[in-house]
Amino acid sequence: MRRHREPPGWGALQPPPGYYSADGRPPDALRRALILDWAVSQRVAAGWRVESRSETQAVMVRGHPVQHPLHAVLAMLTCFLWAPVWLVLSLTHRVERVALTVDALGDIVTVNGPESR
Q: What's the pTM?
């Protein structure tokens, strides 16, 4: 899978005004959960899916791994005519992971995970 371009401004992904208190205090647990919900919904709208979720962190995934046993069977059944398709899929499909964490100040910290095929 080719690497997708993120929407502009995602390097500093922060929720819109109103998610923080007016007096500048750090957000409580409920507001931090709302901030994380907002960040997750932004990623889901861009095609990501949630792999795991806790109160302050969510792991998002995009892409699907290649099912090598299925392609091996298809290649053998078609006398290896399916092998070029399998090779192209193996080289182009990727699984991307990203961890979104809301710190104590309510900022969203994004950590990209390793890409896998």
A: 0.71
